[in-house]
Amino acid sequence: MPLTDQPLLDPVHYRNGMARYAGHVQVVTTEFEGVRRGVTVTAACSVSDNPPTVLVCLNGSNVSNAIFEKSGIFALNSLAAHHQSLATAFAGLSGVPADERFALGDWKTLMTGAPVLADAVVSFDCRLTDIKRVSTHFVMFGEVRAMHFGEANPSLIYLDRGFRTL
After folding, report:
1. N or C: which end of the chain has fewer CB within 10 A?
2. Claim: this prediction has a pTM higher than 0.85
3. Which GO terms describe its molecular function (predicted)?
4. Which residues pair with 164 in a beta bridge?
């Protein structure tokens, strides 16, 4: 039977497998016309070092995420172990309203104007260069225009549906 004729993998089965895939916890942020948006993600990685480029995957069904495309900028902030409450808030799991989440951290800007977490392990300040839509999500590609290094603290990761440190 050709591979194209095979039934699709069950989404629940796939999510159970991805739960065993460790991801560095990050908050991707932007600002457009005075409105800030931040989302906790684990689906982000390096694409290239020449030019320096990262990618971030976001849920396209959340209309609030459209601001990332409108702004044309974003920052990818890698979280440390002590940022677990920040990660929970920006994931929308703590009950903190979206417009109050930035009060939970110390934020600054670098080159693009996207919010950068002052004590992140590292932050990548990016200019949006491309967006690809894939099923329920969109993948943002960003050219890194500036970086900020925080203290060398243990990193916050997500594995088996829970936070861990590394």
Report:
1. N
2. yes
3. FMN binding; riboflavin reductase (NADPH) activity
4. 157
Q: Domain map of the chain by residue range?
A: 3-165
Cα–Cα distance list, 55 to 43, 74, 90, 100, 129 (Å) = 8, 11, 19, 26, 10
108: β partners: 116
- Options 3.40.50.970, 3.90.180.10, 3.40.50.300, 2.30.110.10; CATH of 3-165: 2.30.110.10
Per-residue pLDDT of the chain in tens (166 residues, 90 and over written 9): 576 777 789 999 999 999 999 999 999 999 999 999 999 999 999 999 999 999 999 999 999 999 999 999 999 999 999 999 999 999 999 999 999 999 999 999 999 999 999 999 999 999 999 999 999 999 999 999 999 999 999 999 999 999 999 9
